[in-house]
Amino acid sequence: MKLKPETLRRIDEVIPHYPVKRSAVLPVLHLVQEDAGCISPEATEWVAQKLDLQPINVYEIVTFYPMFRQQPIGRRHVKVCRTLSCALMGGYKACEAFEQEFNTHRGATSLDGEVTIEFVECLASCGTAPVVMIDDELHERVDAAKAKALSDQIKQEAAQRR
Amino acid sequence: MIAPPKPDLITVNVDGREIAVPKGTNVIEAARLVGVDVPHYCYHPKLSVSGNCRMCLIEIGMPAVDPVSRTPFPVAASGMPRINWMPRPQIGCATNVAPGMHIRTNSPLIKDCREGVMEFLLINHPLDCPICDQAGECKLQEQSTGYGRGYSRFIEQKNVKPKRTPLGPRVTLDDERCILCSRCIRFCKEIVKDDVLGFTDRGSYSTLSCFPGRALANNYSLNTVDICPVGALTSTDFRFKMRVWFLKQTNSIDAESSVGANTVVWSREGVIYRITPRRNDEVNDTWLPDSARELYKAIHASDRLVAVKVNGTDSALEFAVGAATGLFRSSAGAIAVVGSGRSSVEEQFLTRKLADALEAPTHLVSRVGQGDEILISADRNPNVRGALVVGLIQALPKTRVAGDATPSSRLTNGDVGVAAPVRTGGLTELAAQIDAGRIKAVVSLGEDLAAAGLTATQLAKISIVYLGTHANATSAVAKVAVPTLTVFEKSGTFVNQQFRLQKFSRAVPGPVGATDDLVVLAKLVAAATGTKIADEIGPLWSVLATEVPALRTVTVANLPATGLLLDGTPWAVLPFAEGATLHYKPAAEPAAAGALKS
Predict the structure, then answer these.
(1) pLDDT in tens, B237-275
(2) Would you call A56 and B202 a contact, using CB atoms and an 8 Å cutoff?
């Protein structure tokens, strides 16, 4: 497992914030995932060793939280809110629009490995439902037209990268 | 003298009955003391409290006190204090008793609670009791009968989970049956210190599993099967072999080391199906190594001796005894007796009698391995202390140095057990005497002299009388070989490392052709001395009581199931091989060394 020096520095920085080492397991896992894209079994073992835990203790946490992933995802991460307010305001339609645009389905990655669509729980912006989060950016009131616009933008950025 | 009242006892009231219990007792244990059963799954007396099954809900209350004067309010009519009951139930396992605490375990609220908890536990539990190995000893089954609602309101689909996941070489998991009590996880973490188990995918599909690539492979893994309150963890060996209610239970002792863990042997119609631990808080708590559970397989080993042999040809016991007697006469004064730390106290006593009659020096084979600091000690002989107590030996056999290790012997090797080899030895003196021609005949009590360090040339120089259970290099060259019984086929006693005298009972009959060691020894003693000696446990113990000082007040009949501690002070200075195990601390090294010098 190879982590960037910057990640290693931040991990070493975050551990002493807690009275006992094991309490740092969530922030450390987030840092590892941010760097490596997912948390592999080797990463789990590395974190366990780092925090004086057994691998199974870390594995329990990784399998519990939906925000930790064990498999790599696409380059862009599209999270469509599925919770009540967004569901009432057309969250399902927005999700279907993205699925059609990228020819994949929720929980899966498009064939070119560019986009992963996830139908997630509350993104905490019920007043502007339905909302979509693309990577770290929140997009509000996503109707069919806006979903198309966002998809086009993603496709355009992907084309530029090639 | 009147014993002073114990200061740390506190009085509590369980269902209207007062009882004094030690401080720090929890409600489940306090109720157990008055004979009240508080049903529970996740709580185990030897593990930490996790409080996740919620089955042990009870009501608690404290006597009302005047807020100003802090004195109890009496109730006018009865004079009894008024009790302020807590409005909500509490879990009994995590509630420690307090002075004056009142506990209700049978109120309508508690009945409702138990029915509710049972209903939730049974939501995803499959109804496969008819094919489940745990049936008959299943807490969930017992308590759904005792405390359940009796009918189901469940119309939804049950969760489907894996039915046969191997967690390790000896444990198979049926995930659907698991009620997530976490006893197995806590056992591995707290007792074995091998934290391999955990719940993954917590939620509706919580699964007990190991980290990918790891396994529940430690030598205590089968204890998780014992403590599993349902049929989720099953022994791969015992799985689907036998219904537990058909099995006969016989109390026995783990003979693989000097810890002497208490066991129950489960057998039916002369066949042993499994061995489980028997609770003894002074020896093994409720645990047993996996290796101890496989020992019974040696009974049906292909190299089991079943025919009396004289000079290599099949014979009968009478001729064998006659041949041995002839040998004793022809080599009188040049005989040695090799006793065994695996023989029972009674057999060792008769061995001593035989040695006395033949005026033969006695030796004992040492068997030293690596202790695991839990329930396997370094001394792999279960009964070296017994040989000291009955006077078969005066000093411990000398251990051979690590360099010339021999392969571990039958009772300790196999798939399980501790990897480090067991060093057998202790016969260097005998070897020297054979080389010098002073010893011409040797009586061996089940000990393989070749494995214990004698060379083939030395074996060729002597005539051997061998009493044992399995074939080996010694039985092959013995002039007289008499097949005898394993620990599961006879009764007797062992003295463990704490000098605790513990008895084991015959679980199954021996194979045709094998004779009880005591009978053979008594015949040999009678042939050597000309007088008859008792060859059964009962009569033999009256002889033992008169001739062995340490056993003067003991009889097998009054020996408690958990054993009797003998006074070990006469042998305290001996350099015993054991390190610390679960309930054993070796005597401090410097003190013993100093005592030896002075």
Answers:
(1) 999 999 999 999 999 999 999 999 999 999 999 999 999
(2) no
Q: Does domain A76-161 have CATH number 3.40.30.10?
A: yes
CB B44 within 8 A of CB B132: no
Q: How far apart are CA B309 and CA B305, in angstroms?
A: 10
Q: Which of B199, B212, B214 sits opposite A60 (nearest CB)?
A: B199
pTM (two decimals): 0.90
**Contact at CB, B210 and A56, closer than 8 angstroms:** yes
Say how far residue B500 (Cα) sits from the centre of its chain: 13
Q: Which residues of B touch A46 (CB under 8 A)?
A: none
Q: Tell me the nearest-neighbour CA distance from B103 into chain A, angstroms.
A: 37
DSSP conformation class of B566? -
Share of chain B above pLDDT 70, in %: 92
**DSSP H helical ranges for B359-455:** 384-389, 428-435
The ipTM estimated for the assembled molecules is 0.87
* Per-residue pLDDT at B522: 96
Cα A43 from chain centre: 17
- A140: distance to nearest CA of chain B, Å? 31
**Distance (Å, whole) CA B348 – CA B345:** 5
Give B195's contacts in chain A (Cβ within 8 Å). Answer: 54, 56-57
Structure letter (DSSP) for residue B549: G
Assigned CATH topology for domain A5-64: Arc Repressor Mutant, subunit A (1.10.10)
- Name the residue among B196, B200, B210 with its Cβ closest to that of A63: B200
pLDDT digits (tens, 9 = 90+) for B284-306: 999 999 999 999 999 999 999 99
Q: Report, as an integer, the average pLDDT of B471-479.
A: 94
Query: Residue B591's pLDDT band (boundaries 50, 70, 90)?
Result: very low
What are the tens digits of pLDDT across the range B177-207?
999 999 999 999 999 999 999 999 999 999 9
Q: HSE on the CB side for B134, CA within 13 Å? A: 25
**Considering CB atoms only, which of A41, A45, A60 is closest to B198?**
A60
Structure tokens at B95: 């509630």
As a whole number of angstroms, the distance between CA B285 and CA B261 comes to: 9
Q: How far apart are CA B307 and CA B131, in angstroms?
A: 41
Dump the DSSP string for B318-385: HHHHHHHHHHHHHTTTSEEEEE-TTS-HHHHHHHHHHHHHHT--EEE-EEE----SSS--SB--TTHH
Residue span(s) of chain A under CATH 3.40.30.10 come to 76-161
What are the residue ranges of CATH 1.10.10.1590 in chain A? Answer: 5-64
